[in-house]
């Protein structure tokens, strides 16, 4: 994941939406390696690599993530078409759009 993408995620992070949340989102990118987000009661940390015990793991390309995050790709459609694979607490993936709103 590029620094620009990470910076954009950090800027878009809605701390209020993450209040009371204690979760780890693992991303296995097919084109840029592994990264994970730690959301801890309104705080966000972004790390490179693999977390030992993520809440949810998502496998996708960085382009698919960008499309989902900016609303060009429907997350459920990406999942159904195989562009996005999820394991663990899959319902957490649906919270990404509220944690990182596009506006």
Summarize the topology.
Blueprint: H1 3-12, E1 22-29, E2 33-40, E3 43-48, E4 56-60, H2 62-69, H3 75-81, E5 85-88, H4 96-99
Q: Which key terms come to mind for this protein?
A:
4 helices, 103 residues, five-stranded mixed β-sheet, 28% helix, 5 strands, globular
The proportion of strand residues reads: 25-35%
Broad shape: globular
Mean pLDDT across residues: 90
Helix count from the secondary structure assignment: 4
What is Rg? 12 Å
Alpha carbon gap, first and last residue: 21 Å
**What structural class results from the helix and strand content?**
alpha+beta
> Helix-strand pattern, N to C?
HEEEEHHEH
Percent of residues in helices: 25-40%
Instruction: Give me the side-by-side strand order of the main sheet.
Output: 3-2-1-4-5
- Spans where pLDDT lies below 50 across 5 or more residues: none
Largest sheet: 5 strands, mixed
**What's the count of strands?**
5
How would you characterize this protein structure?
- The protein is an alpha+beta fold and 103 residues long.
- The chain is 28% helix and 30% strand.
- It has 4 helices and 5 strands; from the N terminus they run H-E-E-E-E-H-H-E-H.
- The chain has helices at 3-12, 62-69, 75-81, 96-99, and strands at 22-29, 33-40, 43-48, 56-60, 85-88.
- Strands 3-2-1-4-5 form a 5-stranded mixed beta sheet.
- Strand 2 and strand 3 (43-48) form a beta hairpin.
- The longest helix is centred in the N-terminal third of the chain and has 10 residues, at 3-12.
- The model has no long low-confidence stretch (mean pLDDT 90).
């Amino acid at each position: 994941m590029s620094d620009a993408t990470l910076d954009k995620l950090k800027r878009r992070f809605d701390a209020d939406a993450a209040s009371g949340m204690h979760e780890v989102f693992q991303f296995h990118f097919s084109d840029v390696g592994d990264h994970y987000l730690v959301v801890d009661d309104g705080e966000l940390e972004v790390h490179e690599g693999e977390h030992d015990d993520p809440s949810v793991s998502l496998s996708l390309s960085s382009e698919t993530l960008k499309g989902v995050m900016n609303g060009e790709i429907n997350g459920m459609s990406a999942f159904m078409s195989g562009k996005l694979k999820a394991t663990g607490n899959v319902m957490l993936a649906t919270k990404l759009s509220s944690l990182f709103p596009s506006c």
